[in-house]
Structure prediction request, 519 residues.
Amino acid sequence: MYPRNGIISRLISISKSPVQSRSFATIRPQQQQSNPVSLLGIGCRRQDVRGMNQRSFSSLFYARPTLQTREFPHFTPSYPNYFYPSRYWASTSTAAAASRPAMFLTKDGGARDAKGAKEYTMDDLPSKAVSRWLFLCAGLTLGVIIVGAVTRLTESGLSITEWKPVTGVIPPLSDAAWKEEFDKYRETPEFKLLNSKMTVDEFKSIFYMEWGHRILGRTIGLVFLVPYTYFLVKRRLPGPIAAKLGGLGLLLGFQGALGWYMVKSGLDQQIVETGSVPRVSQYRLAAHLGAAFLFFMGTLRLGLSTKKDLQWANIGLVNGMGDPFVTVLQDPRIKRFKFAGAALLALSFVTAISGAFVAGLDAGLIYNEFPFMGDGLMPPKNEMFSPKYSRRADETDMWWRNMLENPVTAQFDHRLLATTTYFGTALLYGVSRAPSLRTLLPPLTKHLVGASFAMVNIQAALGIATLLYLVPVHLAATHQAGSVLLLTTVLALLTSLRRPSSIATAVRLANKRAMTFLH
Prediction:
């Protein structure tokens, strides 16, 4: 509270004329010499002070629980520039003031632009519940990817021959129901060619594995859809984020449909006629896994972004930095580093997808040695590019069909991509340790670069061990989980260099001005 001394009493009694209110949006930097601006970005003239009555003027000296909009200009509560705001403005750079966005306080503590067209408050940002919900969806997706890997490695994916989204939730409960389900499985190519001596009890183990995988997928659908609908109805999602989440919902539904489309490829009776190995199409497997990866990265990215926007709007530290964070992001060196991180993320994703082709073709069961493949680092050329995989008379499709259908070439491609990912991550880590970047990078970014390098080492060790030990279930499933964790660290690294949203920046500016006004 400020003392009500004689100066204030004399100013109050000078004039009783009404206040000449002035529109905030009409203040321009070139008018600041005659129309000074306070810390709140609101201008006034001395004759406006004389026109205040005692009640309105004295209200400036008492703290209020919320900021109230008034028809007369505000003042900066800092003596001695309180009555002469021009002294403050004289010490402020006009160019810097002109570069600031023309945002002003509103009665609910938010901000609006100079035209008064849009008001921004904390309600315009997603709440903490949204980011927690997205993190939950990402965690469940990681779980379903691991369960899917175990389902494939135990050859359980073809045990359920029908797609029943609703009634399929309940497994067989009686002996008659189990016999009926087992009879359906006996008609599949997998039973006829591989499991002709399987009993009902052995069938139950693979059935429950595939059933659990499907139940977990349905659970993710409910966990995503129900809160998303709730947040939409309650209008707690900004338009752009709501649209992105809607796209992720469509992707999730598409991913589930791809799962059944993939299973159907392993139930084709043509497999029995040709005498080939009963397994799902590697193309559909890669698409199914790729959709799961994209959904995981989308939910994780949005969860991290919404959390950081809330921290930024609440005048907190983001990635270990305050206001200088936005300036650091404009540095060309940081932009190049961010581009390199995006390239590494894309490379890691492609490497993971190439692993799906290795799994779909059982390519991990050949050349179980490292780093050599036979007598050299590369297998013989006639094995890598075999004409028998071509389906055209001129053999123009030989090169790409060998890459996607030849187990030898698929394993070599995966090795090459994995090695490139490893050295790319090591190079990014080395660059981050350079003195020119080390002082610029946010603290969290430096930690995430180190975490990415540590994770790529673990992933490389898991991949080599999986190959040398002929793809045991526990190692292979851990290797697939490692690919998701590597994507997580690289994605978090890239998100740590994301610029806060314009709404979060506007609310942060309003909150800072409110704090300046109240103090």
User: Anything to note?
Assistant: The CA atoms of residues 95 and 130 lie 39 Å apart.
